[in-house]
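[recover] target loaded
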């Protein structure tokens, strides 16, 4: 009976246990379904994706490359450098984070004050170079952006102190037909008469390493007629073909620096009277030598178509007067031909300087000189003459002069000077001569009394 009771009680317990298990199983199933449903719902909601940030980072040191090795400089450094020495540099910018998705964009420039000398662009790396040709303090600036954000720049100060200074200087006077004009001058001229002019610009300091580049332009009524580029010297011409005012502007630069221009006004008067050919006045050609400490100036005259002898030296010849129909329209051109067949022309002036000691065209021999008279630019008359240049020196001798020749007592010693021709070893005899006694030594033995 007890067994039956216990057996029944055991079955009843098993029934209760199974019931609890089923309840818990259902509860667990419902719980799992709810969780699954929530997860399913969350997985089907719109998702917001957060990207990694790309922010400003920092500049790496500036590296200067040179034959002896590399030098590194941090932002804000002062760098002393040599004139015209290549400034080859590299640097890089690291955005944050430093990975392939966050790369910088860079630019750079070097300035002298507010003037940009050179600039460039790059990625996160910069590698470039430049030269600095003048003394001064320059600023090298490196710029970077990360994801469009402008980051703080990196600047360096570059000091150049060893350049040879080449600065603006001055214009020499403008020379037109041996007459000089300063900047700003007004120059009266004649229509259709060529204007031959010369000048030069002197940079500072005036040496071979500091030479100017020049140009000039001619305008009439604001219209450019002619422009020419030149070196530091200008030697050119133009011909005004109409009356009015012309503006001649000379420009120069020294080591790339633009210097103040020099401006002239050329005024061409209206021709109110005819300027026709006339005739020579009959007056002679004049000449005068250049005085020296040991030789005073000599002067004289010669006519057209004549030939005369001059001792070696420098001379200035003046043209004879030619009368045009209108006196204010006469000009003269000159041409001379040297014994070595060198030939040159000078225009628009009534004087011609010739230095027969000049090694380029000078020397002993016969020079043929032509003077062309022009009326209003027209050739109207030609005057030709020849100059024979000889090497003459003055020699002093003491001699005894007979009483019959000089009026002095016989045997009296006096001093006479005469001109001897050293090129032919014969004495140039004037119209009156006397003979020395005893005979004189040296080239020749006659005394040009007429010269004393």
């Amino acid at each position: 009976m007890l067994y039956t009771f216990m057996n029944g009680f055991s079955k009843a317990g098993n029934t209760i246990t199974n019931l609890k298990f089923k309840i818990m199983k259902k509860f667990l199933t419902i719980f799992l379904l709810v969780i699954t449903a929530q997860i399913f719902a969350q997985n089907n909601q719109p998702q917001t994706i957060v990207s990694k940030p790309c922010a400003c980072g920092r500049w790496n040191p500036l590296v200067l490359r040179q034959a002896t090795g590399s030098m590194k400089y941090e932002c804000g450094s002062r760098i002393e450098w040599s004139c015209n020495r290549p400034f080859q540099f590299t640097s890089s910018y690291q955005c944050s984070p430093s990975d392939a998705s966050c790369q910088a964009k860079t630019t750079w420039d070097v300035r002298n004050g507010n003037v940009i000398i050179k600039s460039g662009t790059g990625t996160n790396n910069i590698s470039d170079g430049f030269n600095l040709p003048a003394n001064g303090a320059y600023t090298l600036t490196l710029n970077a952006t990360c994801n469009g954000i402008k980051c703080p720049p990196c600047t360096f100060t570059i000091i150049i102190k060893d350049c040879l200074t080449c600065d603006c200087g001055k214009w020499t006077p403008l020379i037109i037909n041996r007459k000089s004009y300063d900047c700003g001058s007004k120059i009266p001229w004649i229509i259709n008469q060529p204007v031959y002019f010369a000048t030069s610009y002197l940079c500072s300091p005036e040496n071979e390493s500091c030479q100017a580049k020049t140009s000039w332009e001619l305008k009439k009524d604001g219209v450019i007629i002619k422009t020419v580029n030149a070196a530091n010297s200008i030697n050119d011409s133009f011909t005004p073909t109409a009356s009015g005012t012309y503006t001649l502007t000379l420009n120069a630069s020294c080591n790339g620096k633009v210097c103040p221009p020099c401006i002239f006004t050329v005024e061409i008067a209206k021709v109110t009277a005819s300027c026709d050919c006339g005739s020579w006045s009959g007056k002679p050609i004049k000449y005068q030598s250049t005085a020296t400490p040991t030789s005073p100036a000599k002067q004289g005259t010669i006519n057209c178509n004549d030939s005369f002898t001059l001792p070696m030296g420098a001379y200035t010849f003046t043209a004879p007067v030619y009368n045009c129909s209108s006196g204010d329209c006469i000009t003269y051109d000159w041409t001379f031909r040297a014994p070595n067949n060198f030939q040159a022309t000078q225009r628009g002036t009534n004087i011609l300087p010739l230095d027969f000691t000049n090694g380029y065209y000078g020397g002993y021999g016969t020079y043929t000189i032509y003077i062309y008279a022009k009326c209003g630019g027209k050739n109207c008359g030609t005057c030709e003459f020849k100059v024979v240049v000889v090497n003459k020196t003055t020699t002093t001798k003491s001699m005894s002069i007979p009483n019959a020749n000089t009026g002095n007592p016989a045997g009296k010693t006096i001093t006479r000077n005469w001109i001897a021709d050293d090129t032919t070893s014969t004495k140039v005899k004037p119209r009156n001569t006397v003979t020395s006694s005893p005979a004189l030594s040296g080239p020749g033995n006659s005394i040009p009394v007429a010269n004393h």
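[recover] notes: The chain has a mean pLDDT of 80.
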